[in-house]
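U., I forgot to send this yesterday:
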Amino acid sequence: MAKALREQTAEAVGSLRHMENARLDALQSALWDAAMAGEVKAVCSIVQIVGARVRLNGLEPAKDGSGAMTSAPRTVVVSPTA
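Result:
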């Protein structure tokens, strides 16, 4: 039962992450030409979108309790057979 719940939760998280990445892709695409033309507001928005994508996908460097960076990865990978 617990295994089935973990698998279902992992699938739901994966689906939500995929949907949010698609939304970020659409937003970034809509702003890209303006950002490349030097429009500062568009550039700032792209930077925020990239930051959101980094956080969403667990790509930020890990920090210890004091806020210092650590070399340990934060992303947890769950095997579908676990």
